[in-house]
Design brief:
Strand order of the largest sheet: 4-3-2-1-6-7-8-9-5
Largest sheet: 9 strands, antiparallel
Order of helices and strands: HEEEEHEHEEEEEEEEHEEHEEEHHEHH
Number of helices: 9
Length: 441
């Protein structure tokens, strides 16, 4: 057996040994991960038996350094107390309760009060602290779970999992590193159901804005099949700068979300004191009145909804009249007689019959009235603090949609060198006259 052959056998043995070590290492890593997961699943729960009691939770308090949020169930509806009892987000509540029921102890941490702030579990947090206290109450008002939630810890988290948390029970000295993320947000924006209205732009017939100084802005289109809206209050002699911008009048009720919400009675709003009032009408008879108010550092919109029976009747009459007119046109289109057959040639094709006119789709007045009642019950008690862009849509002035006026007396801008000065009027002119006018021989 020569030296070269021995060297080859040795190299193969080394490679196989290395592969075996790698396979063993991967197997060990997988086993460690599985063991870690099993270990976490068998660790002590912070609140043994809480998972089975979560349906009995009737109130949640979240207390942070700067803000407090109270979510409570009233008549089977979750509401936010700091927003005057407005509807809460069910998904946020479900997430928090699920997290609370599954939080488990990973490792004991400090029990020294002076060190609590390092991991965010102090009792009286500073304004910049990440500490927040969560309390759960039962239907009778008794507190049955409370936890101070501190900083995130990513170093101990499993790969692909969210961060673990430093936590401590109020009144206990011992703090802990807990397994699992706890989605505890102490801001109203995370708890109120902020999407409050979504009327498709295709339903909007007109938007009329009245300002306190008397200016009126009207954007409308006569028929829902027309492609564009018109500025009906365009002053004589002025031009619209961008027809597309007028279409924003059809989007004033689409995808609306608020920043904050209060009861109208709480803010003591009076429509007479509003900055502007917008009336938005749909093609099928809904009428929205939106009053814009400024209170504190926020802009609020108060909405009232009704059904316009006269508009519904007029729309139905117009649809019936169009149907009768279309039927008359179809009836007048008598098909031409079919030519007589000619021997040896294919049979002639009969002229097509007129296309039947479909029955008109009429607006169901009762359905619209019911929709108006439901929307009004949902919206009218409240004032919605809206973003600046939405406030501006409800306060547009005619000038916003118009081209700028040139100062009076300003001469037209002369053409630049090389710029076309315009073509001559060629009507009634022969080629000889054209050559003479242009100085050509």
């Amino acid at each position: 057996m020569n030296t070269k052959f021995i060297a080859i056998i040795g190299a193969i043995a080394v490679i196989l040994a290395a592969a075996g070590l790698m396979l063993s290492s991967k197997r060990d890593q997988k086993k460690q991960t599985v063991d870690a997961v099993r270990q976490i699943s068998t660790r002590e729960a912070f609140f043994p038996g809480l998972s089975s009691k979560l349906e009995d939770v009737a109130k949640i308090e979240l207390i942070g350094p700067k803000e407090k949020v109270t979510v409570e169930k009233k008549d089977s509806q979750w509401t936010v107390a700091e927003s005057d009892g407005y509807a809460a987000r069910e998904d946020s509540i479900s997430n928090l309760l699920n997290d609370f029921g599954n939080v488990k102890k990973l490792e004991a941490k400090t029990s020294t009060a002076s060190l609590y702030s390092r991991i965010g579990v102090e009792d009286s947090p500073a304004e910049d602290s990440e500490s927040k206290t969560i309390k759960l109450y039962g239907k009778g008002g008794a507190e049955f779970a409370a936890l101070i939630v501190g900083k995130d810890d990513y170093t101990s988290a499993e790969e692909g999992q969210g961060p673990n948390k430093f936590v401590r029970k109020p009144g206990d000295k011992q703090s802990w590193l807990a397994a699992g993320n706890i989605r505890a947000y102490v801001t109203k924006a995370n708890w109120v159901k902020s999407d409050f209205l979504d009327i498709p732009a295709t339903r909007i017939q007109s938007t009329e804005i009245l300002h306190k100084d008397g200016e009126r802005v009207l954007i409308a289109k006569a028929d829902e099949k027309l492609p564009v809206y018109e500025l009906k209050t365009k002053p004589e002699g002025r031009e619209v700068k961008d027809p597309g911008s007028i279409a924003e009048g059809s989007r004033v009720l689409s995808g609306l979300r608020f920043d904050d919400v209060k009861k109208r009675a709480t803010l003591n709003l009076n429509d007479a004191d509003s900055s502007a009032t917008a009336t938005i009408r749909t093609f099928d008879g809904l009428v929205f009145k939106a009053a814009v108010h400024h209170s504190g550092d926020k802009d609020y919109v108060a909405l009232d909804v009704s059904a316009d029976d006269a508009a519904i009747a007029a729309a139905n009459d117009a649809r019936k009249a169009k149907y009768e007119a279309d039927k008359a046109v179809a009836a007048a289109q008598t098909p031409a007689p079919t030519p007589a057959p000619v021997e040896g040639q294919p049979a002639p094709t009969a002229a097509p019959s007129p296309t039947p006119v479909p029955e008109p789709t009429l607006i169901e007045a009762d359905k619209i009235r019911k929709e108006a009642e439901e929307l009004n019950a949902k919206l009218s008690p409240w004032a919605f603090a809206v973003p600046a862009y939405y406030r501006d849509r409800l306060m547009r002035r005619n000038e916003y949609f118009l081209k700028e006026l040139k100062p009076e007396g300003e001469a037209a801008t002369p053409p630049s060198p090389g710029e076309s000065k315009g073509l001559p009027n060629l009507e009634g002119m022969d080629i000889q006259q054209l050559m003479q006018q242009q100085g050509m021989k």
